[in-house]
Automatic annotation (TrEMBL):
This is FAD-binding PCMH-type domain-containing protein. InterPro entries: FAD-bd_PCMH, FAD-bd_PCMH-like_sf, FAD-bd_PCMH_sub1, FAD-bd_PCMH_sub2, Oxid_FAD_bind_N. Residues 1-14 have a biased composition (Polar residues). PROSITE patterns: FAD_PCMH. Residues 1-27 are annotated as: Disordered. Residues 110-222 form the FAD-binding PCMH-type domain.
C-alpha cells in the first residue's frame, strides 16, 4: 500500500448502519475496508490547497451579504446544520463521496463548488431554507443520497450555491405497508437502510428491494 493510503482521509472509519444514515451493514465492513484501501493506494490525484478565495460567493451577492445571510440561516436552523465550505476539497471515495463538489470533475475542480452546505431536518426547515434563499437571492442546489458519478456529482450548476443536503437529517422510514407493497421514506433512507428495516420487521421474504445502484442509495442527486 502506498503512503497516500495512510492519509487521514484514507484511514477514517467507514460509516456503518445504524450509526449513520449513509452507512453500510456491519457485516460488509471487511469488504468495504479492502475496497477503500485499494482506492487510496492507487490514487494518483495529488492533494492540494484551494487556490481561490473561500468561501465561494454566488454571482450577484457580495461576500459580506453572503456571510451575513449564512449567519441568519444558522440562527434559523442551528449553527451545527450550516457548514461554510471554506475547507480543502476532499474527494473521498464511493462510500464517502463529497457533497460540496464533483469528485470526478473534468474541469477546474474549484469551478463548480458550493459556498455552503445546509442540513434541514424536516419539511418545515426546508420551507425556511427556501424562504431564506428567496429573501437573500442566494441560489440553492438540493441533493439527497445518490452519487451521480460521471454526471457532475454534488457540484452545483451555479458556482457558490448553497447545497441543501436532504439526506443527513431527513433519514426516517415513515411507513412500510406490506398490504400494498409501498414504503414511504425521507430522502436520506438508503437501500441498505430499507433492506435492514425489512429484515427487522420480518418482511424480506414478502417485500423485495429492487436496486438500480450497487446497493446503498435509492436515488440520484437532484
Amino acid at each position: 500500500m502506498s503512503s497516500r493510503s495512510s492519509t487521514p482521509e484514507a484511514t477514517t472509519p467507514i460509516p456503518t448502519l445504524p450509526k449513520t444514515h449513509s452507512g453500510i451493514p456491519p457485516y460488509l465492513l471487511p469488504k468495504a475496508t479492502r475496497a477503500k484501501e485499494a482506492v487510496f493506494s492507487g490514487r494518483t490525484k495529488p492533494a492540494k490547497p484551494r487556490s481561490r478565495e473561500v468561501p465561494v460567493v454566488p454571482q450577484g451577492v457580495s461576500r459580506d451579504q453572503f456571510l451575513e445571510a449564512l449567519e441568519e440561516l444558522k440562527r434559523e436552523l442551528g449553527e451545527e446544520n450550516v457548514e461554510v465550505n471554506d475547507k480543502p476539497l476532499k474527494d473521498g471515495w464511493y462510500m464517502e463521496h463529497p457533497n460540496t463538489h464533483d469528485m470526478m470533475t473534468i474541469l477546474d475542480e474549484e469551478e463548480f463548488v458550493a459556498g455552503a452546505v445546509v442540513y434541514p431536518g424536516n419539511t418545515d426547515e426546508v420551507v425556511k431554507m427556501v424562504k431564506w434563499a428567496n429573501r437573500w437571492l442566494v441560489p440553492i442546489f438540493p441533493i439527497s443520497m445518490g452519487r451521480n458519478l460521471g454526471y457532475g456529482g454534488a457540484a452545483p450548476r451555479v458556482r457558490g450555491s448553497v447545497t441543501v443536503d436532504l439526506g443527513r437529517r431527513m433519514n426516517k422510514i415513515l411507513d412500510i405497508n406490506p398490504q400494498d407493497y409501498t414504503c414511504l421514506v425521507e430522502p436520506g433512507v438508503s437501500f441498505y437502510g430499507l433492506y435492514e428495516e425489512l429484515g427487522r420487521r420480518g418482511l424480506r421474504e414478502h417485500m423485495w428491494v429492487d436496486t438500480p445502484d450497487l446497493g446503498e442509495h435509492h436515488w440520484e442527486y437532484g
